[in-house]
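Final report, Chapter 2: Outcomes

The project's central promise was a pipeline that accepts a single protein chain and returns its three-dimensional structure in a standardized token representation, suitable for archiving and comparison. That pipeline is now operational. To close this chapter, we reproduce one record exactly as it appears in the project archive, with the input sequence first and the structure output second.
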Amino acid sequence: MPRAERPAVGDGFDGGGRVMYAACALSQFLVAAGASVVTTMGPALREANGLRASWLPSAVLVYVLALGLLVLPLRLLIRRTRPLPVLILGLWLFVQSSVALTLVSGAPAFLAFRAVQGVGAAALTATALALVPALDLDLDGQRPDRLLLVWSAVVVAGFGTGLAAGAVVGADWRWALWANVPLTATAGIPLVRLLRSTRRRDKGVGAGAGAGDGDGVGVGQGEEAQDAAA
């Protein structure tokens, strides 16, 4: 299929493509910040959880490992099913583990919930990677370059913000983790609402038009069309 004839799957958002992109970008800001925030939290965090200074790299490592190892399997799962269940799982795990990290005591429990937080981050990242390529955003004819630039800037800003937040909170380190709750809701609620509204619309027309009933707003169809055209 010629490139010009590929389906504009982003049209399924009825003008919500920019909102979807912003929400996905915010989710990746949180994922990047979550990776770095504990590295600079200092002695108050270590005393509360029995962490030695030499164990702080492990608190980052378990998060990054869970994120890195699960992004691809979850991405493949979304291609076979739908983004919405993976998104909801990621939101729930990321929020719940962030809260749990402020309540647990003991290094093993802290590291375990950091791993769970990484699993949630992997689900959020896999969802973003599934949705963003399907958006039909044309920013002054420079869609690929500008979107990539903005996305990279958001991730770098999230990583830097995590370092800065961990350094300034001091004894109030728990607030840096509690902040994940409203921020994750800010990113997650628009994503869930857009996916659900598109699913209802697809169900209304899917039987007759062959549009399917996936939550992925044509994500799977768009990718298949791109693969066929390659």
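Archive annotation: The radius of gyration is 19 Å.
This record, like all others produced under the grant, will remain available to the consortium after the project formally closes.
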